């Protein structure tokens, strides 16, 4: 059932959103499980988190929300989205549900976001009047930007304190623990930069580039190649030949692919990497089941370290 077809039925007879801090947990809706887990890390048992996308089989770019998702947004005390055109369905849900709850938009916590919007306001609060669509040249996959996720966590803590001021101390303690994990991730990335800074890698899609850039690694994949693969378009023959030539040059240390998408050109790159004995790493768009955000990034950074050591 589509959102448009089901919205009237789903919203009929629904009560208004219960305010956080009224004795029950703060209701948080996150576009993906990664943001939901960060909210859980800060809120603990004091939040009730509903991630809209939690399965590797769901593609945020083409996701069609349900009436249940609209209902969750309507009752949310806080909404967390990625922004940057990645999860535009959240904007549609907010509009359709009539939600007036605060919205935190993850891209705005990245220093790479045009205008340098990272936590320029005290709490990162977004009244959702701004345009959060895709901007050319900006990599919207900001959950791989660990610095931005630390800033987002601070924004979440600030919002939870407003919604449930009686538990401000718990939120602050949880934030301290999360930020210690972020600091450890940044230290690991700095160690990779120190040992391998400038090393060339081939990334089939821009998915992990915030993380690899922080590690000092240089993506040499042709821009036309990665753009075509990300958009699901055919790669021009000349661009494909250029990509395969790079893999045969002995300069590329590792290849990184999106574990949840692929195509003919990606398959050819994987075949060439195998032929040239270039290690291949898979990075995903969704949080592995049972992992925390910090654990997920630790595993990704460990994979980078191991791949570069081969």
TrEMBL record:
SUPFAM superfamilies assigned: Helical backbone' metal receptor
InterPro entries tied to this protein: Bact_metal-bind_prot9, ZnuA-like
Pfam families, alphabetized: ZnuA
Subcellular location: Cell envelope
Keywords: Metal-binding, Signal, Transport
Main location: other
Residues of the signal peptide: 1-20
PANTHER family: HIGH-AFFINITY ZINC UPTAKE SYSTEM PROTEIN ZNUA-RELATED (PTHR42953), METAL-BINDING PROTEIN HI_0362-RELATED (PTHR42953:SF1)
Protein name as it appears in the record: Zinc ABC transporter substrate-binding protein
Organism (species): Microbacterium pumilum
């Amino acid at each position: 059932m589509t959102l448009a077809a089901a919205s009237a039925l789903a919203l009929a007879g629904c009560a208004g959103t219960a305010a956080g801090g009224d004795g029950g947990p703060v209701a948080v809706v996150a576009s993906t499980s990664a943001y939901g887990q960060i909210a859980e890390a800060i809120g603990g048992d004091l939040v009730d988190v509903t991630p809209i996308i939690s399965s590797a089989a769901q593609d945020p770019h083409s996701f069609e929300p349900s009436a249940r998702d609209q209902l969750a947004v309507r009752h949310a005390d806080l909404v967390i989205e990625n922004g940057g055109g990645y999860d535009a369905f959240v904007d549609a849900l907010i509009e359709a549900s009539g939600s007036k709850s605060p919205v935190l938009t993850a891209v705005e916590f990245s220093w790479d976001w045009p205008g340098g919007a990272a936590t320029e306001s005290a709490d990162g609060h977004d009244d959702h009047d701004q345009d959060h669509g895709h901007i050319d040249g900006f990599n919207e996959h900001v959950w791989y930007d660990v610095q931005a996720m630390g800033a987002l966590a601070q924004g979440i803590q600030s919002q939870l304190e407003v919604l449930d001021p009686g538990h401000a101390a718990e939120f602050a303690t949880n934030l301290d623990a999360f930020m210690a994990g972020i600091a450890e991730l940044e230290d690991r990335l700095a160690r990779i930069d120190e040992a391998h800074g400038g090393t060339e890698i081939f990334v089939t899609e821009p998915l992990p580039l915030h993380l690899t850039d922080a590690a000092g690694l240089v993506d040499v994949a042709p821009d036309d190649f990665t753009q075509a693969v990300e958009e699901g378009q055919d790669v021009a023959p000349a661009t494909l030949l250029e990509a395969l030539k790079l893999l045969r040059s002995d300069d590329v240390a590792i290849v990184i692919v999106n574990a949840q998408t692929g195509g003919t050109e990606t398959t050819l790159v994987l075949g060439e990497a195998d032929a040239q004995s270039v290690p291949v790493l898979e990075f995903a768009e969704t949080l592995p089941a049972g992992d925390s955000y910090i654990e997920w990034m630790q595993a990704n950074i460990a994979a980078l370290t191991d791949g570069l050591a081969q």
